[in-house]
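Appendix B, example 12.
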Amino acid sequence: MPPRRCSRCASFSDRGSRHLVPHLEQDAVGYVSGGSGQIRDARALRETIRQNAITYPVPRGPIDTLLYSAIKNLIYSPQVTQSMVRSQFRNVMALLFLAICFLVSILGLRNGAAVAWIALFYFVVTNVLVLRPLASGRPESARFSSREVVIFIAGSIIGPVVLAGIIPKTLYPFHNTIVFTPVTFSILFASLAVSALLLMAGIGNTVNPNTIAAAPHLETPSMNATPTQLFVELAREMKRLWVEEVPNRTYMRLPPNVAANHGEFDAHLIEETQPLAQDLDPLTLQSALALATTRWLLAADVLGTLLTSAGAWMLTQWGQSSNANELLLYGSSMLVVGAFAFRGANRLWRRFEFKSRLYWIECHGSYARASTKVGSVLRDRIHTERESINVEMMTLRVWVAEVDSVAFDTDRTRDMVSLRGLPGEAQRVGRHLAAFGTDQASVIVPGSSVDLQRLALADRINPKASDADTLADAYGLSGSQAAKPTLDVSQASKFCTNCGLQLEANQFFCGACGQKR
């Protein structure tokens, strides 16, 4: 069993571990709802981070209440561990109940035929309890209703008396070729021993409660750019945080919607870094005996091996004998109980612990569209205009937490067992995003090298009107050949001297600023 566990660890240590909740595909928007794990979907995960609390199932029924009261840490354990402990606890109680009823039924009964029939009945019932989980492939537990318990108790007291009076003393099942009493005792106590070891193994896999704490960081930046640009930078930052160059797992991506001229926006992003396995060391016999999570599993496997070997030997002896029918029942029953032990222990052998980081970024605020113009109509030859979005004092919250999770096999989701806040990392990401948003430019200015070269050439070809010598030099003319620029007053009077607005011929005051012509 240990080599099998180590071989599976290689598949987990890379990208084979399942997600905490249903995840999004690359560049998808929204979230996937309707999961079936410990945390159903991204909305529930968001509330888990917000509330700083992991939701655990509440015990139902008197048996579960008794079990969870006796084992305090069971409620904090993964779902597979809880299911195993609950089912094996019921199995132990049911098998103990059957053993007691069987002893009460045959105690003091002098009719050997009636004892044989009672032993046959309990043999069948015990095999059904053990065979059912093997046939279904699920950890089914033996369940008795209140009516069935009353019937078994009354039957164990009244039934033997009635059978002893009805059944003749010579009417044995199978003509007394098989003695069912020792076979039934053997299968009962073997099943009880296996269930008890699996119960102890499940208890050994319970998790101690840890402190649940997230680390929110609040920023209130103002920016003259679309909030979508903030999420573009956030995507770059998340890519820098990739673990071993493996993409993060995105559970929720809701970008800001700023399609209108003004309004409010709300945006969310939840990502988890690649989970890394924490138990990559080889599992040896000494370490298996030392660890509480594997000690009882090893004992269950040893008992299953002994039962399987004994069953195989008995079946071999039955094949070589002509009248040893009891060996057939002994051998087949031991093989069934041995398989029951292996199947139950195998579910807990495949336990792997992971560590990852969870990031949740929330943005909320209001926006308004604005237009920015740079340059004077009369004095500047370059005029720029840009439509931008103004955001004032938006709420930017960043949660960062280190997550410990547990998974059983590749086809099961991981269960979160602890959530530890990382305030330093949350502060770093929050301040980086706030600084990025504040530094966004709202004015368009030519900045490429080609633009600067063309502007320099335009300055030489199209100089200011007062610089006649520069114009002559640009066209290779001498000072005498160059025409001296003159100021046309009639042309200048067509523009406002204050704001530069073009005026009509019969307009004496500027319509924009009121300046007299």
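The chain has four domains: 1-54+212-283+350-445, 57-208+284-349, 449-485, 487-517. Residues 292-320 form the longest helix (29 residues).
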